[in-house]
Specification:
single chain; alpha+beta; three-stranded mixed beta sheet; 7 helices
């Protein structure tokens, strides 16, 4: 559970872009591994904000049910936590608007615009500022062939590997993990075969 006086934990990682001194520009991001699901958030609210046990989880389920019905009717949903807009696309390339038929239209997801409410709300809790968490040097790890090979071996024990799984096992960012996995799919003798499964890319040994 969150600690009130620990400060906002963050990590620093390099980007592919070079700065004026020729070195990689770095960026800050929230420390990995800190994640709460709705059940734990519900429990926290019940303990610290006096909500009924299970209330928050129930409200979210009802909101998704209700909002999805209204968005299916074409409505934009404006809420205290931001707006939700159904995103549409066409199944094929069409250059003449008159040629678009109802069967050509498809739902591509939902665009969420949080506005600035989260910035103000979160900033109100940053009493102790930010706290840097030491993280592995991604550039050094990317040069460690033995480390990368061992991480891949561990991931492939389940039969396939994803970017997220490899990033965690090899202690890399998602960007670096994907870059390495893609590299293993290239060349005359690739190590991996990339396959699209739903919204996720999976890599299997060749």
């Amino acid at each position: 559970m969150p600690k009130k006086k620990s400060g906002f934990p963050y990590e620093v990682h390099p980007t592919p872009m070079k700065g004026k001194d020729g070195r990689n520009i770095v960026y800050a991001r929230p420390a990995r591994g800190l994640k709460l699901d709705i059940e734990k958030i519900d429990s926290y609210c019940h303990q610290h904000y006096k909500t009924a046990d299970g209330e928050l989880e129930y409200v979210f389920k009802q909101f998704v049910k209700c909002a999805s019905e209204l968005m299916a009717r074409g409505y934009r949903i404006d809420t205290p936590i931001g707006s939700f807009v159904p995103k549409l696309g066409l199944k094929r390339e069409i250059t003449n608007a008159d040629d678009v038929d109802d069967s050509d239209v498809q739902l591509e997801g939902v665009d969420y615009n949080p506005g600035k409410i989260w910035n103000k709300a979160i900033e109100g809790w940053l009493f102790n500022g930010f706290h840097r968490v030491e993280n592995p040097n991604v550039q050094e790890l990317m040069q460690d062939t033995e480390h990368l090979e061992q991480a891949l071996k561990e991931c492939l024990k389940r039969g396939f590997v994803t970017v997220k799984a490899f990033a965690i096992q090899a202690q890399l960012t998602d960007y670096s993990a994907r870059k390495q996995l893609e590299e293993w799919t290239q060349g005359e003798n690739p190590k991996l075969l990339k396959t699209r499964m739903g919204h996720t890319d999976i890599y299997t040994a060749i």
